[in-house]
Amino acid sequence: MQNVVDRAGSLTKNLKLPRLLIPIALLVGGAGMGLFFWQQSQNSAIEQTQINSQPAIKTITALGRLQPTGEVIKLSAPTSTNGNRVDRLLVKEGDRVQARQVIAVLDSHDRLLAALEEAEQQVASARTKLAQVLAGAKSGEIGAQAAKSRQAQVELQKDRDSQVDEIARVQAQWNGDRTEQAAKLQQIGVEVQNDRASQVDEIARVQAQWNGDRIEQEAKLRQIRVEVQNDRATQIDEITRVQAQWDGDRAAQEANVSRLQASLENAKLEFDRYQKLQAEGAISTSVRDSKKLAFDTAQEQLAEAQATLNRINLTGKQQLRQAQTKLKRIESSGQQQIAAAQAVLNRINLTGKQQLSQARTKLQRTNSSGQQQVAAAQAVLNRIDRTSEQQLSQARTKLQRTNSSGQQQVVAAESTLEQIREVRPVDVKAAQAEVNRTIANAKQARASWEQSLVKAPQAGEVLYIYTRPGEVVSSDGIVEIGQTADMEAIAEVYQSDVGKVRLGQKARITSEAFEGELTGTVSQIGSQIRRQTIVNTDPSTNIDARVVEVHVKLDRQSSQKAAKSTNLQVQVAIDL
Fold first, then answer.
1. Could you report the per-residue pLDDT of 373-422, keeping only the tens digit for each?
2. Count of domains for the chain
3. DSSP classification of residue 472
């Protein structure tokens, strides 16, 4: 449109071109632009219709399998019993078992039980020998020395209790001081976080205010530019109209002047001819005077037409000059308005930047000050920890010295008691060592015997038995256990569709193995893309597809229905 206006302006300056071409050019340019925008709107409508005609995808389907929640556990024998056979199997497929329930007994059970009983008998024998060594002495002296030994133990216990109380006091004091300082540290952290959040909100408010003022002023600036452009275009049209009207009036009057000039020349020729005829006496004077009157009248009409032409030119020039002056005034005023609006926009941007910079600087100061306060509170907490650790270490050291000194006194009293009893410490030590050795052997025998009993690690249902009585335990284990009370479906969703799956979406599971359908919700979306493991019987199916495992937790009724269908291949439809 601007090019058309500029072209019209150039045409107004070039007076040699026909004035009627200007409005024709404006009409042709406007019609061409209107046709262009109509075609664009029609193309956009067609494209939108094509997009809306595409069907929306409402479900994602995938092959999957049923399994108990938490996966299936293959229960095997302890690693130290590799090579053993199953002696007794206490469950069958379909039985429900409880946690720590014995599932199977290995063939080493009876041998290890006999070894355990033998080890316990050896412990009893060693304790009997120790009692024999400690028995027999002078009862009076033994009683007196035993009293001294008990007194030493009582004093040791009293000193130990006193020092333990001191340790507990130091520990309690430490805990109280540390809890109080930790609360202060947490409070400071919360206050710093609140101050930071408040300043972040202030930055967001300043940014939003700046954006709003800037957008409003930019809209005003665009409106002013449009108004100035419209006023300029209107005035250019007015100049074009004045120029065209002037050209039309002038051309019509110039034609009238030319016609009157021709009439004047004819009247003059007639007057000259009749004047000669009158001089020759061919006509009367009155006839000559009538021609003279026609000649004079033609001169007056020509003069009047010439005056009218001059007035048309003068008026046209004045109107054109006034219209051009008004155009310059419009352009000047428009530029001033645009400059003023641009100045306001620049001031808004400058003020917004300054306020945003100040808010960000204040946020930095808030962060720095908050970090200093947190560091100071943390330093106090660290100092409390160091001081309390030192006090606690000193109290524990004192307790160790008390124990050591008291133990020495108790040992001395017990040594004297042993001497009175005429029992050699070496005999007691040897008997006690034998007791300790037999107890250790008994513990080891019991641990070995425990390994001959295979127990269920969790409650569930026996799904499959891999090893029967008399068979060696293989790498597959003995039995397979799963929590069939809660079933789930593992769907292998194509990697191109997994982005549409969300937790909590409803899913429907179907199979040829049962009637109707199972229902559940998406409970877990895998994080690993792997090769598809479940394929259907269609030979055209892509067996090298990349999928993601999606877990669908079945509701209670569906879990009961699918409890006997572990590893069943199913079709899963997830509702989007």
1. 899 989 998 999 889 888 888 888 888 888 888 788 878 777 776 666 66
2. 2
3. B
